[in-house]
Amino acid sequence: LRNRRWIVTYIEGLRCVRCGEEIGYERVVYSCPRCGGLLDPYYNYNSIAENVKREDVSRRPSSIWKWKELLPVINESNIVSLGEGGTPLIKCDKIAEALGVSELYVKDDALTNPTGSLKDRQISVGVSKAVELGYDTTFTITSGNNGASLAAYSAKAGLKCVIIFTTGATKEKMLMATALGARTIKIKGEDSLVATAVNNVLSGEKPDWYDCGFRVFEPFMYEGRKTNAMEVCESLGWKNPDWVLHPSVGSMGVIKAWKGYKELSKLGWTTGKLPKMTAVQPANVAPIVKAFREKLSEIVPVEPGKTIAEAIACADTGDLGKWTLDALRESGGSAVGVTDDDVVYGLKLLAREGIFVEPSAAVTIPAVKKLLDEGVADRNEIFVCEVTGAGWKNFSFAEGVFGLPKVIPPEEKEIKKFLSEYLENFSA
Ligand SMILES: Cc1ncc(COP(=O)(O)O)c(C=O)c1O
Ligand SMILES: [Zn+2]
Fold first, then answer.
1. What share of the chain is helix, strand, coil (3-state, %, to 5)?
2. CB 397: neighbour CB atoms within 10 A?
3. Which of 96, 153, 162, 306 is deepest in the core (most CB within 10 A)?
């Protein structure tokens, strides 16, 4: 197979995370046929190490697809791209100073991905696989960002797209998906109940949709998330950072970035100790944090409380959460819950660096402070805070925190008053 020039990936198969069963990658299988566990692609790393040089990869245009050998799309011609990935790693000295650390970076997956969130990394891969496998309709249940992204890539690929939004989805995310041509609906209720009800109906009806949803685990697309880790290392001169913090639901962010860091190290492309991975959740809806701190081996669903970080509020993260726990522990990392006040503090610090994000994306900033306060992290270590969704994905929230400009009449007196107030109160 490798001699056929159109094959770009070195994927070898899918492996069950629970029982180790290995199956082929020719079609999409949503769970292990033997035990129902989650499936994870594996690759021929020896061949990659032999045939691919990191310098050549580095020279390719900046995109998640520069890492194509480590992604599951077989034929390059099936790639559906809108310019995802290649997001900046921004050194943030003001945040570092405020938190009391010497070196802190923000990996900004919010503004520079095409639909303004981290989901573009996975949906570009998911929709490419849908095209490769001959599907004509895509589907997701989503708190918003996954849906906005799926609508965009499905439109680009000419696929029909059906989206069910859960309670927390903001107007902006739903409008974006609808504007991009998806068939959309919102179901109000606790997220896991919504997912169970919808999945039960779908399994009865059996529509042949490419399912990028929630509680159904598409085994290929999340590989796109590894590219975040690869970009971080490349930006740091092929070095690993010490701590990487991810806003977390499941958390594919942690699971796949951890896989990405390990893959680069296995290929000999990076040196030094692997990073300590940290999942950050809203303290009121934090099943992973609870299980991590109580040293449980499985996730126990929590009673969901209120939070402004609506995009990452999920009371039961099931098997994904268990996989995340394993990654956090294997890496020597941590799990941190943050309050609404913490999130607003994070948003304001990010704003001082010129970075405008949605509340869920800001949770990693205050979490650094918690790691320091608890004595698990050292102030001289290198921190990478993932920020994952753009500020315009939740305008009404931003308006509440920052306020809209006052409206005044065209009178000199009023203008002078504004200027003098501005000059008196100005601070960087
Ligand atoms: C803004 C934002 N950040 C982070 C996440 C976390 O995703 P995951 O837990 O899959 O890494 C989501 C998921 O909806 C999100 O919308
Ligand atoms: Zn299995």
1. 45, 15, 40
2. 21
3. 153
388 lines ligand 1 (CB under 6 A): yes
Please give the number of the atom of ligand 1 that sits closest to the Cα of 110: 1
Tokens of 343: 């999130």
* Whether the predicted pLDDT of 326 surpasses 80: yes
The string of pLDDT tens digits covering residues 204-252 is 777 889 999 877 899 999 999 999 999 999 999 999 999 999 999 999 9
Question: Could you tell me the maximum CA-CA distance found in the chain, to the nearest angstrom?
Answer: 77
Distance, CA of 336 to CA of 247 (rounded, Å): 10
**What would the two tokens of residue 42 be?**
């594996």
CA of 4 to the centre of ligand 2 (A): 31
Query: How does residue 312 score in pLDDT terms, banded at 50, 70 and 90?
Result: very high
CA of 144 to the centre of ligand 1 (A): 10
- Claim: this prediction has a pTM higher than 0.85: yes
Instruction: List CB contacts of 91: < 8 A, sequence separation 6 or more.
Output: 103, 104, 105
Three-state secondary structure readout of 188-249? CCCHHHHHHHHHHHHHHHCCCCEECCCCCCCCCHHHHHHHHHHHHHHHCCCECCCEEEEECC
Whole-angstrom distance between the N-terminal and C-terminal Cα of the chain?
59
For residues 138-160, one letter each, b for 16 or more C-beta atoms within 10 angstroms of the residue's C-beta and e for the rest, the string is: bbbbbbbbbbbbbbbbbbbbebe
- Residue 388 has phi, psi (to 5 degrees) of -125, -10
In the chain, the amino acid numbered 173 is: K
H or E element at residue 50:
helix 45-51
Mean of the pLDDT values across residues 275-282? Answer: 98
